[in-house]
Amino acid sequence: MSRKRRDITREDIAKQFVLPERQSKIDTLLRQDGQAYCICRSSDSSRFMIACDACEEWYHGDCIKISEKDAKLIKQYFCIGCRREDPTLQTKWRTKRERDEYGSHSEDRKFKKHKERHDPDRNRSKDEKFKSKGDKKTKKCGECMGCYRTEDCGRCDVCVRKAKHGSSKNKERCKQRICVNALGGSTRRKRKDSNSDHEQTYNEHLKTDYPRQCYGPKCVKSARYGSKYCNDQCGMNLAKTRILQVLPQRLQEWALSPSLAEDKNIKALDQVRKQQLDVRHILQELDKRHREIDYLVSRAKNVMIDPQWENDVEKDEESSMYCVTCGHEIHSKTAIKHMEKCFNKYESQASFGSVFKTRIEGNNMFCDFFNSVNRTYCKRLRVLCPEHCKDPKINESDVCGCPLVTNVFSPTGEFCRAPKKSCTKHYVWEKLRRAEIDLERVRQWLKLDELLDKERQIRASMANRAGVLALMLHSTYNHELMERISKAQDQQAIQREMENARQKIKA
């Protein structure tokens, strides 16, 4: 039994497991059964091939003129036969986003495999790797400008981030302190950053050993080292000459070419001026109303108290209400006086101060009381300041003087002749009216201040648009305008020639 087993070789054992089904499957996978592919109907599968997504037939790339590089960009491929049967089938290509994703994934896989195969540090310890990285960082050529710098420039992106977030959080090195020749072993210099030391390199071509001619007009001297001129005056003379050459033509172009922005600014300026006139007119009306109150008060001083004022007092029912300031229950007759006292009490506890004193020509309506402790001026209205401006004492013979009206707003020409102390209907009417006028004055002054600021901005924009610097630096070539200017100049030249010819003939 043992001899028979020893006599059977491995090949004989393999032949026992060679079944027809397995052999056909192996032949199909290995393409060794004589199956034909592609339009060339050959069984060669060693070349690049692509399959149709409809019939699943394989085609050689060189037979259908599709390279392996182009096949990576195809999303779905349909052969010619399938497209003839169904014209709606079209080969779909990957979008740019899909190409980038596909390329990034494939490149990442290739890079990882290449790094794993060719990484020289994969068998080294962490300490050795850290040392090698430190050596690479400290490697410098000692010849470029980055090696000689000892301080940060303060203008590059890295320095700006350091100043913003702090040096402890940002460990990047200034771009001007990086060695150019030590980056990857290449000797090619990087392109200079826009924020680099332009002040030190802009005049390098002027630092020559041989003498150079000064750029000043009519100057025969040699220029200074690192400059275009022999002195500052030559530079000023050249600038004046250029201004005299360029500015007249620019002014002529500006005068002939219409500007929409200028028209809009002129309209806006007219509107602002109209609003300023309206505000000033309102202020004049408020001054007039203030004088009218003075007249009413002076008229009441020259009148005696009406002896029948007690008969005119209406007998109100006994009613009560609650104060809006303190919340206490009060009688309806004394409600106005009580509320006024409560308001003055709480208003005096608050402070409205400023370090600047109000400077208004004429009637100053603000309190402006100087507090020596806080070194501030009170900015309440003088009429409503209960802390520093007390109400004058009322005598027994003082008349109320409040003008009487019908239908709430229609004046009758008469006024209240009741005693000022006892009149509850018109309590502190003079104070309230003056406060109303002063508050309206403040609103109009603030509005006038805004309008003046707006006018200043419009005037500044108009001045900058047609300023000397703007005309010299910014210019758009207008062909139609330049043709008109050139024609006008030609006509003037022709007229001059004709006048000269006439004078010669006369002579």
Automatic annotation (TrEMBL):
Matching PROSITE patterns: ZF_CXXC (PS51058), ZF_PHD_1 (PS01359), ZF_PHD_2 (PS50016)
Species of provenance: Dendroctonus ponderosae
GO annotation (BP), single: positive regulation of DNA-templated transcription
Protein's UniProt name: CXXC-type zinc finger protein 1
Listed SMART domains: PHD
Compositionally biased spans, kind Basic and acidic residues: 97-110, 117-135
Keywords for the protein's UniProt record, in alphabetical order: DNA-binding, Metal-binding, Nucleus, Phosphoprotein, Transcription, Transcription regulation, Zinc, Zinc-finger
Coiled coil feature spans: none
CC annotations in GO: Set1C/COMPASS complex
Taxonomic placement: Eukaryota, Metazoa, Ecdysozoa, Arthropoda, Hexapoda
